Amino acid sequence: MGEQRTTVLHTLERGLQVLEAVAAADGTATAKVLGRQLDIKIGTCYHLLRTLVASGHLVRLPGGYYDVGPKAASLSRHLQRRSGPSPELAVILTRLHNKTRETSYISGWNHGALTLQHYLSGLHTLSVGNLDVGYTGHMHARASCKAVLAFLPEEQVAAMFAGVPLEAVTTHTITDFDTLTVDLATSRRRGYALDLEEFSDGVCCVSAPFFGENGMPAGAFTVSVPQSRFTERRSWLISEVREAAAMATGLLRTGRLTVPSPDAPARSDREVS
């Protein structure tokens, strides 16, 4: 019984790997390519593909290509409804994107993890590692994570990183916890966090947290920009991201989505480098 259970679980794991690989290939996946990519025997790969097609999770296209089917698309919609931002927060993200024309993100803090919930690509698409909806990794290197961590109790942050090595994602990544603690304190004082090529070479990010009724961080808004353009637009981008976060905080605390008046005076918070 134990051996059979292991075999069944292994087959399920390979089936999920095939489903994920097909989804990532955007309609260009074939059995041979998938077999090589996932190190699965071609006969087994065909069997897994037939099973996923029969269940509706995949569809077979002309020419032997495979793509995501209606069952997988339905599952994706269910997951997005459960884990994605509320429509009102999505509106704020759209506003931030429309104003900056840069790649804009919203992340949500839940159960001790900051999860990327949604993003809108800028005019110039950036390649930022494997960052995608659902991503939770490298909390020490991402501006959104640092923006939230900065406003959590210090003992909670210390517990999260105790005994955890801080991976050098790039040559600019903070890899020492004491240095990270100083960076978080700076972010807390100024109200936003920066990622200066710490997660992806050539890319800088600014992020500001928003807060729920209990005063604790509920998530963050972020924009990512090529380093050269970030230098030129830094102060303005910081202002726009902080405005988005302030709108979200107001929404969560009052239940009303309020757009700042265009005649309202600009915030005069002193930027700390």
Automatic annotation (TrEMBL):
Molecular function via GO = DNA binding; DNA-binding transcription factor activity
Which part of the chain is the HTH iclR-type domain?
A: 9-70
Look up the domain of life of the source: Bacteria
Record keyword Transmembrane helix present: no
Q: Which UniProt keywords apply?
A: DNA-binding, Transcription, Transcription regulation
GO biological process per UniProt: negative regulation of DNA-templated transcription
Q: Which Gene3D superfamilies match?
A: 3.30.450.40, Winged helix-like DNA-binding domain superfamily/Winged helix DNA-binding domain
One Pfam annotation reads IclR_C
Task: Please report the stretch or stretches of sequence annotated as the IclR-ED domain.
Answer: 71-259
Stored InterPro entries: GAF-like_dom_sf (IPR029016), HTH_MetabolicPath_Reg (IPR050707), Tscrpt_reg_IclR_C (IPR014757), Tscrpt_reg_IclR_N (IPR005471), WH-like_DNA-bd_sf (IPR036388), WH_DNA-bd_sf (IPR036390)
The name on file for this protein is Transcriptional regulator, IclR family
Q: What is the lineage of its organism?
A: Bacteria, Bacillati, Actinomycetota, Actinomycetes, Pseudonocardiales
